[in-house]
Structures are given as structure tokens and as C-alpha cells.
Amino acid sequence: MAGTMKRTLLGIFLTLFATLTNANAEQEATEPMAAFIAKAAEQTPFSAEEVRSLLQKAQKRQSILDAIARPAEGKPWYQYRKIFLTPQRINAGLDFWRKHDATLRRAEQTFKVPAEIIVAIIGVETFYGRHKGSYPVLDALYTLGFHYPPRAAFFRKELIEFLRLTHEEGWPAKSPLGSYAGAMGYGQFIPSSYRHYAIDFDGDGHRDLINNEIDAIGSVANYFHQHGWRWQAPVVAPVRMRTWQAAQLASRRITLSTKVGELARLGVELKNAQHYDPETLVMLLALREQGRKRYYAGFHNFWVITRYNRSPLYAMAVYQLAQAIREKRQP
């Protein structure tokens, strides 16, 4: 009898504990959502009830969480490069340039950003519109904002930007499709970038980066212009490390922290260093090839490319693809 009573009391205790635990977990899960809804109602034209209704339409997608856990930028350079520096992508870039030559020349003149950089961005991001993404942007931002703790705060901010954007553009919230990270269109603009840098480059009264290649070209050029691209300034140059101590200075960080005039003293050899202002700041990069590392000095314009995607691998892929397309166009 005593054993039966103990088991009964233990069962009641476990049931009560489970109930309280579930209640606490449910409260923890709903509190951030409630706070987000209140913030979104303050910062967008939607009421709290409208925001709640929109979020109820969003779906958590495990495939999005799987995708963000294995980004291509986690690969070594020699593997990453092979994704983008292919004959197919170079030839497609050449075709895209031919098709939009007048628009690209106008973008160059207006924003002082080279045509090959604009073409390469669209080539790296979506293979010139072939791969613009198939996830509902609402689902992507909801999944990452509420089920991906490492960057939840960032994606919740982007979700608010997306709600603003749908109101400004008159989009149904579930309609826009994009990447697993919520980026949209030919140039893969996240909602905040779309709102701040997208432009109507063909003058039809709409800024459409999802279906309009002309608006996409102008908007990519505007993005680089707004982030300080310097016309006809260097982007990146190979360097040679004379000592192992010099090699230790190089990394995959993206901070302009070393002056050109200091390189020789540090044991870093930059070809034709005398042609650069000694006060010019560079970042020293080490990118892994098979069996070795190659070293580079990234200039201000290299840093500007990383404003689009904060990876030196990405910036180098864009630069090398741009150079390959230009060389094929103008041997």
C-alpha cells in the first residue's frame, strides 16, 4: 500500500512538473512573439492584430535551418571559387552584358561603378536570374527570426523591414519568393536593402528587383555607390609574405587596418607599392588554395564588396568573375 501511494504521489508530482515545465516553455516561446508583435505594430503601418494574422500564415521550415547551418562561405577558397568561376557563369555574364549594354553604361555614368562589378554581383547572387530563390520570404524571416537563436535579432529586424516593404510596394505578404535568408530578386536584396537602395531605373514608376533586370542593374550600382565605391581605384592585389611573422598578419578578417607604407617594414611585399599613397589602408587576407595559402591586400573597394556579403571569399569571387567577364568581352 505504501509503495502504491509513493508511486501515486510520484506520478502526481511528475505530471505537475511536466505541466509547469510545458507552461513555462510555452510562455518563453510566446513572450518574444508578443513583444515582436507589439514592436512591429509600433514600427509598421500594421496593427497588432494584423501582424499576428500575418505571422499565423508563416511556416517554420526545417530546410531553411538546414541551409543556414552549411553556408558556402564555410568552404576553403579553392572549393568556393569553383562554384562561381565556371565557363557557364562567365559566358552567361557576357550574354547579360551584351543584352543590357546600354543600361550598364548608364549605370556606370550615373553611379561610377564598373559594369563588370554589377554583372558579377548578379551572376554570383542568382546566375543572372536563374536562381532567385523559392522560399516565401515571410517563411524565411519568420523561421530564422524565431527558430535560429544565433541571428534571431537580425532576422526579426528584417521581418519588420519586410512588413514595411510589403505595405510600400502593395505586395501580399506571402507572395514574394527569395532565398533561405529572405533575400529577393536578381541581386538578392534583403528587405532593409530593398527599402533603402532599390531604385526605379527604367522610369516606369515601380522599383521591381524581382522581375525587372533594368531596375536590378541600377539598384546594385546604387548600393555600391552609397557604400562608397571609388571609381578606377584598386580592389585587390596579391602580396608576398617574406617572413612567417608577416604571414601571421593575414587572416579572413575584413578590416582595413594596415597602411601601404607600413607593409615593407612588416615583411609584406606589394608589387609597385610606390604607386599607391602610403597612407592607403588595406586588409591582409590569407585564402587557402590546395596545399598552400595565397596572400592578398584588399583595398577600400574590396571592403565595399564585403558590404554586400561580409565574406572575403565572396568579395574575391565577385572580383575574379568580374575580371574574367571583362577579359572575355575585351580581350
Mean pLDDT: 90
Distance between the termini: 94 Å
- Name the strands of the widest sheet in spatial order: 4-6-7-3-5
Q: What fraction, in percent, of the residue positions are helical?
A: 55-70%
Q: Give the radius of gyration.
A: 25 Å
Tally of alpha and pi helices: 15
What percent of residues are in strands?
Answer: 5-15%
Q: What overall form do the CA principal axes indicate?
A: globular
The biggest beta sheet is recorded as: 5 strands, antiparallel
Poorly predicted ranges: 1-29
Question: Given the helix and strand composition, which structural class is it?
Answer: alpha+beta
Secondary structure: number of strands: 7
Strand/helix succession: HHHHHHHEHHEHHEHEHEEEHH
Quick tags:
two-stranded antiparallel sheet, globular, 7 strands, 331 residues, 15 helices, alpha+beta, 5-stranded antiparallel β-sheet
Descriptive account of the structure:
With 331 residues, the protein is α+β, with helices and mostly antiparallel strands. Helices cover 56% and strands 9% of the residues. It is built from 15 helices and seven strands. The chain has helices at 2-43, 48-56, 62-68, 77-84, 87-99, 101-111, 115-126, 137-147, 152-169, 191-197, 213-226, 244-247, 260-266, 300-305, 312-329, and strands spanning 135-136, 177-178, 236-241, 258-259, 268-270, 281-289, 292-298. It has a five-stranded antiparallel sheet with strand order 4-6-7-3-5. Strands 1-2 form a two-stranded antiparallel sheet. A hairpin with a 2-residue loop joins strand 6 and strand 7. Helix 8 (137-147) runs antiparallel to helix 9 (152-169). The radius of gyration is 25 Å and the shape is globular.
